Amino acid sequence: MAERLQKVMANAGVASRRASEKLILAGKVKVNGQVIKELGVKVDTDDVIEVNGHLVERENKVYYLFYKPRGVISAASDDKGRKVVTDFFADQAERVYPVGRLDYDTSGLLLMTNDGELANKLMHPRYKVNKTYVAKVKGLVKNEALKRLRTGVDLKDGRKRAKGKAKVLSFDKKNETSIVSLTIHEGRNHQVKNMLQAVGHPVKKLKRETYGFLNLDGLVSGQYRELSRDEVKQLYDLATPAH
């Protein structure tokens, strides 16, 4: 995906974006052997960039869909020595980090990338990306509880009411548990657990099944796959506000 030259230079550590613009205007930058003296030029990953005769080394942008297991921290490191999501990508040349987080005891779909711009956009609350979770909860969930989840429940964080699309997938009357699907577009801390707790059904097990149009099809826990160019484009489209 083409990006502005000064942004690519800044991301590669050449200089700040403002300083990179000054280098371009001063004729210090070449793209594919041609001197660039104007702002607004866009470059692709295979374009060769030189600054003052020195080649700019760029890190390839990578995008992965990861099936996070339970008992793994959604972080690049952990001071307690617990397993983290980046441990699963140790054989990859590029350093990646998670887009958002899933709780230690929650499994499911997690995006991993080194594209900070996309990650920040996807995590911003105004870009409403739907996420579907499947939860095993205590008790037999009745219609009244589903109605409250759909219309909104008050959480203890003092912010506006949280709501989502909710439905029961199955019951286990013997063990008095239910399997519930809940789709939300926010990402408050422990939101799904807190919403279900608020309607009287504490979560026993939780998994994120979808993120926007993406799902876990073809993966088992601990596996990942690279996103296609089309999927990356769709994610950018999701994170672009409608006018």
Description:
- With 243 residues, the protein is an alpha+beta fold.
- The protein folds into 3 domains: 3-55, RNA-binding S4 domain (Structural Genomics Hypothetical 15.5 Kd Protein In mrcA-pckA Intergenic Region, Chain A, Roll), CATH 3.10.290.10; 63-126 and 214-238, Pseudouridine synthase I, catalytic domain, N-terminal subdomain (Alpha-Beta Plaits), CATH 3.30.70; 131-211, Alpha-L RNA-binding motif (Alpha-Beta Plaits, 2-Layer Sandwich), CATH 3.30.70.1560.
- Helix content is 21%, strand content 28%.
- The protein contains 6 helices and 15 strands.
- It has helices at residues 5-11, 17-25, 116-123, 143-151, 191-198, 229-238, and strands at 3-4, 29-31, 34-36, 42-43, 49-51, 54-55, 63-68, 97-98, 106-113, 131-138, 165-172, 177-184, 203-211, 214-215, 224-226.
- A hairpin with a 2-residue loop joins β2 and β3.
- Its EC number is 5.4.99.-.
- Residues 3-61 form the RNA-binding S4 domain.
Note the topology.
Layout: E1 3-4, H1 5-11, H2 17-25, E2 29-31, E3 34-36, E4 42-43, E5 49-51, E6 54-55, E7 63-68, E8 97-98, E9 106-113, H3 116-123, E10 131-138, H4 143-151, E11 165-172, E12 177-184, H5 191-198, E13 203-211, E14 214-215, E15 224-226, H6 229-238
Parallel strand pairs: 9-13
Antiparallel strand pairs: 1-4, 2-3, 2-5, 5-6, 7-9, 7-15, 8-9, 10-12, 10-13, 11-12, 13-14
Helix pairs in contact: 1-2
Order of helices and strands: EHHEEEEEEEEHEHEEHEEEH
Overall mean pLDDT = 90
Over the alpha carbons, how many angstroms does the gyration radius reach? 22 Å
How many domains, in number, for the residues? Answer: 3
Regarding quaternary structure, what we see is single chain
Keywords: Isomerase, RNA-binding
EC number: 5.4.99.-
InterPro entries: PsdUridine_s_RsuA/RluB/E/F_cat, PsdUridine_synth_cat_dom_sf, PsdUridine_synth_RsuA/RluA, PsdUridine_synth_RsuA/RluB/E/F, PsdUridine_synth_RsuA/RluB_CS, RsuA_PseudoU_synthase, S4_RNA-bd, S4_RNA-bd_sf
Family: Belongs to the pseudouridine synthase RsuA family.
